[in-house]
Amino acid sequence: MIGNWPNTIALVDADYFYANCELARHPEWRGKPVMVLGRLNSCILAKSPEAKKAGIGTAMAAWDARKVCPHGIFVEGDFRYYTLMSRRLMEILRRWSPVVDVYSVDEAFMDLNGLRGLYRKPFDQIAREIQHEVHESLGITVSFGISVNKTLAKMAVEINKPNGILAVPGKGIDAFLATLPASEIPGIGFNRAALLEKFGIRTALQFARWPQIQIERLLGKSGLLLWREMRGEISFPLQSESAPPKSIGRTSSFDHPISSLDQVHGLAVYHLERAFESLRRNHLLTGELVLHLRDKEFHIYGIPHRFEQPTDDFGELVSAMRELASKIPKSHIWRSAGAMLVRLTPATGRQLDLFEDPQKMVRSEQLTEARLKLNERFGRTMVRSGTTLLITNAKPKGNEHRLPIVL
Ligand SMILES: [Mg+2]
């Protein structure tokens, strides 16, 4: 018999995510059947509860849906916006727990161990407050399944959607499993459930009580992993983050080899911006910037700049790149240019330089944030360093028609 919370995992799952995101920016659609269409408007990817009530099924063909629900609101999917909402959701979760294991665009496992003591609240109250914060900041609802491992948390979250919370403590597992058919265990599915039924296994609890040897014989290793999870053990540990990258490099070729150093510098800064975005997204600092070049004969050059302190300050990176550009060997013909960030370390606990001007630091930080926000909102080429305007024959891809703001 296990205790109630030998380990506490939550699965946070945004309710009808794409449709919920649309409702967040179109509050006037609330209470109406709203459907989000996939690429080429072919099928329904997400639907509001009202559309579900009207009889719209998962992945229903768009033209069937229009027949079933002629007065519904059909929206073309805006995946850039959903990605942004997803990122914001994960940011909120990370503020509550140091370990967030992103499972999909709208689902993440959270490690709740130790949080009861930290926030002095029971787990379901913590979940309630996170739900509230997500709703306040993003305008969408999320559901929580809380249990002792990933699979049970996943099964729990399915029960009370939308805006639900279900906690299944160790001592409640058996009662919970008794209510569910074995096909509800993620990874069992209908085929395996049909096979189990031949052996008299109908409920998830019967599955959990079956002898190990039988499970192994019938369902192999993967079945055994699920069986252990149904018994409250851990087969699938939480993965906090994918291992951080060792370096971040971005480079590309010119349409034809060139000799203009301004253009080489411009392309290098353009790639520095991409690398910088990735640095920030991964919450890393860099200790060294390398200007990466390849000449007409395909010789590779790396010109390094070491920072005194690891940094994620865009201004500092750009001025380092300017310095590196002045060291580019003269009278060469260049094929490609790029930027590489190496000696990466996690951005937590950045050491403050006592001699650094705090005003300057704050301003630089604000500029960097503003740049990231604008780029997220309007696409990457919205805010570019003035230097990248010099690129004439190496066209960065993106929303080139937009007028860039030059910093
Ligand atoms: Mg979801």
CATH superfamily of the domain at 248-406: DNA polymerase, Y-family, little finger domain
CATH class of the domain at 248-406: Alpha Beta
Topology order in helix (H) and strand (E) letters: EHEEHHEHEEHHEHEHHHHEHEEHEHEE
User: What is the count of helical runs?
Assistant: 14
Oligomerization: single chain
| CATH topology (fold) name of the domain at 248-406 | Dna Ligase, domain 1
Question: Which strand order does the major sheet show?
Answer: 5-6-1-7-8
**Based on DSSP secondary structure assignment, what is the total number of beta strands?**
14
CATH architecture annotation name of the domain at 248-406:
2-Layer Sandwich
Poorly predicted tracts of residues:
349-356, 392-407
Binned strand content: 15-25%
Provide a descriptive summary of the structure in words.
This protein is an alpha+beta fold. Among the domains are: 17-80, 3-Layer(aba) Sandwich (MutS, DNA mismatch repair protein, domain I); 183-228, Orthogonal Bundle (DNA polymerase, domain 1); 248-406, Dna Ligase, domain 1 (2-Layer Sandwich). It contains 14 helices and 14 strands. It has helices at residues 17-25, 49-53, 62-68, 79-96, 115-119, 123-138, 150-157, 173-178, 189-198, 204-209, 212-230, 261-281, 314-325, 358-378, and strands at 9-14, 34-37, 44-47, 73-76, 100-104, 107-111, 142-147, 165-167, 248-258, 284-295, 300-311, 334-346, 383-384, 405-406. A five-stranded mixed β-sheet has the order 5-6-1-7-8. Strand 5 and strand 6 (107-111) form a beta hairpin. It is globular and about 80 Å long. The N and C termini lie far apart (62 Å). The protein binds magnesium ion. The site of magnesium ion has 5 residues, from strand 1.
